Amino acid sequence: MVDEKIQNLTKEIFNADPQIVHLGIIDLEGNVLLDQSSAASTPMEPDPDRIAFYNQLGLRRNTREHFDEAYGKTDYIHITREKMQQMILYLPKITIYLTLEKSMIPEEVKVTAQKIKLLDSDIMKTGI
Q1: Could you tell me the domains of the chain?
Q2: Distance in angstroms (rounded) separating the CA atoms of residues 73 and 47
Q3: Which of 47, 102, 54, 62 is nearest to 78 (CA)?
Q4: Helix (H) or strand (E) holding 25
Q5: Is beta strand 94-100 parallel, antiparallel or unpaired with respect to 20-27?
Q6: pTM of structure
Q7: Digit-coded pLDDT (tens) for 85-96
Q8: Using alpha carbons only, what angle is made at residue 53 by residues 52 and 59, rounded to the nearest 5 degrees?
Q9: CA angle (114, 96, 125) in 5-degree steps
Q10: What is the pLDDT of residues 58-116, one digit of tens each?
């Protein structure tokens, strides 16, 4: 069963932009807290490949944080692929992984990241 706070955060994220296709919420150790498609009304159980991918996101976050003092913190990562776009947001207590519609332009991705970070500030005050 997924925690109610995480379910509420998920709804808020999907409401932030209709071009979000999929999301994963990962804790600081790389463990999956939630994996859900925008087309589904409930979270799904991620397959082993996705679990491994999310674990790697946790490792990459730790690697990036090593350089925070020298270069500043990473706000978000935007990756454009042939068939989709990905965004990874580093929030204080969680990492959010999103797949986005291929048609999104970089400015739209930036606005979506900012909207989610504002959601986070309210929801994270109560803790996940």
Answers
A1: 4-126 (3.30.450.30)
A2: 31
A3: 102
A4: strand 20-27
A5: antiparallel
A6: 0.90
A7: 999 999 888 999
A8: 90
A9: 70
A10: 999 999 999 999 999 998 999 999 999 999 999 888 999 999 999 999 999 999 999 99
